[in-house]
Write a structure and sequence with these properties.
The chain is α/β, with parallel strands linked by helices. The chain has one domain: Rossmann fold. It is built from four helices and nine strands. The strands form two sheets. The chain has a seven-stranded mixed β-sheet with strand order 5-4-2-6-7-9-8. A two-stranded antiparallel sheet has the order 1-3. Strand 8 (154-158) and strand 9 form a beta hairpin. It is globular and about 35 Å long.
């Protein structure tokens, strides 16, 4: 595991120009970059980063290497235990992933707490789309259920997305906004 640095806005723009999937995502990703830079982790795991890991030097876990050939763990996050040891990472980052875990969010979060000292998760927030859509109406109560009622150190809403930062070594947990 090497040194961790975050993507720049210019790197993001280059990917966004190649793939419209990334349109409108920099605003919340920038906030995550700010948190990561403050934490300054020496090791990190990104889950489901598609073709754009937010950190250089992080390990990536994804379902396949379809979007990113450098995926270290080809693994379904709903399958536990994960293939890494306890407290292996300083930080786990999963942006817009949790809603896709389809009933296994709690188990996956328990694994995040096992393998990392900290975590940053982002969620779609109160989207009023098709009620059958996995993004539909995710609110604080749903996120608390998925994250085993562990209190985050920081909650930051950015438009229609919400970011939770957890420090598992600091279980006092308080909410800043």
């Amino acid at each position: 595991m090497g040194s961790i640095t975050c993507i720049t806005r210019q790197e993001f723009i280059e990917i966004k120009n190649k793939n419209k999937y990334w349109m409108g995502r920099w605003s919340y990703m920038r906030e995550v970059v700010l948190i990561i830079n403050e934490i300054n982790p020496s090791s990190a795991l990104e889950i489901g980063s598609r073709e754009l890991p937010i950190m250089h030097g992080s390990d990536v876990m994804d379902l396949s290497r379809k979007y990113l050939s450098s995926v270290k763990y080809v693994w379904d996050a709903t399958r536990v235990p994960w293939p890494m040891g306890d407290r292996h990472y300083d930080l786990v980052v999963a942006l817009q992933v949790w809603e896709h875990l389809l009933g296994f969010q709690k188990e996956a979060f328990a694994e995040v707490m096992r393998v990392a000292r900290r975590a940053i998760l982002s969620f779609s927030y109160k989207w009023q789309c098709n009620p059958k859509d996995c993004h539909y109406n995710i609110d604080e109560a749903k996120i608390a259920e998925w994250t085993l009622n562990v209190k985050p150190v920081l909650i930051k809403q950015v438009g229609t997305r919400i970011i939770y930062y957890f420090d598992f070594d600091n279980q006092l947990g308080h909410c800043l906004s």
